[in-house]
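=== Per-residue structure ===
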Amino acid sequence: MAAQLIDRYTGSFEAERHGGTYRDTLCDIIKAKRKAQEVKAEARPAADKQTDWMAALRACKSLCELSRRHRQRAARLSSRVERPRRCVR
């Protein structure tokens, strides 16, 4: 099955189809600097939301506490349940 998948997607590499924009942009910047033109950097998109790592840590800790309490409670309840005894021969 793996060989069939490889055969299906194997083909010749066509570099023209995979044009890189980084190199083209870099070449344009170099040409502009040679002509003594001002080069402006493109604005990066602003981050949507900053992560409050302390709040995330507190939430994780409280979830762990709840999980530990749940396991402890389950252990207490299971010890109360009367289990059938095995027959001894």
